[in-house]
Amino acid sequence: MSETENGPSENEGKPKKLGNPNFYKGMPALNPEGRPKGSLNKYTKLSRELMSSKGPEIVEKVIELALEGDRHCLKMCIDRIIPVSKAVEVKHEHEDLGINIIIESVKAIERLEEAEYKTIEGTIMEKISDEY
User: Going by C-beta distance under 8 Å and a sequence separation of 6 or more, which residues neighbour residue 40?
Assistant: First the structure.
């Protein structure tokens, strides 16, 4: 009979040890020199070379596409001009006031989204009615 049939094995209930069993705490470093400070990743080097040689053309193309209505390019341009701000929690003497401000902000955003949806929906309906 095996050990598992007779009873619990000796490792049962113990967490499995992680990592390489040949490494131990306090052992000398395997690469004491390490990666030199200031050395660049190969993808960083590649992107820098690309941006230095073709950077202006790429930026012009992104702006051109944004002006033509490409949403992704427009978002890239806007994010560079006006970075996204993080939400700031408002602290007041009255806790309810802060909650009301957050709720009103959410409601205002929902109203804007609803208005935009209705505008898009109206445009689609116009196109459909024009076709028939």
Answer: 48
With tokens 């193309």, the residue in question is 61
Element (H, E) at 82: none
Q: What span, in angstroms and rounded, lies between the C-alpha atoms of 132 and 128?
A: 7
Q: What are the boundaries of each domain within the chain?
A: 39-85, 87-132
The angle that helices 42-68 and 71-81 make with each other, rounded to 10 degrees, is 110
C-alpha to C-alpha distance for 95 and 108, rounded to whole angstroms: 20
Interval 28-69: pLDDT, tens: 888 888 888 888 899 999 888 888 888 889 888 988 998 898
Separation of alpha carbons 61 and 77, rounded Å: 11
Tell me if 66 sits within 8 A of 77, measured CB to CB: yes
Model pTM score: 0.36
Cα separation, 58 vs 130, in Å, equals 39
Concatenate the DSSP letters of all residues of 28-65 into one string.
PPSSSS-SPTT---HHHHHHHHHHHHHHHHHHHHHHHH
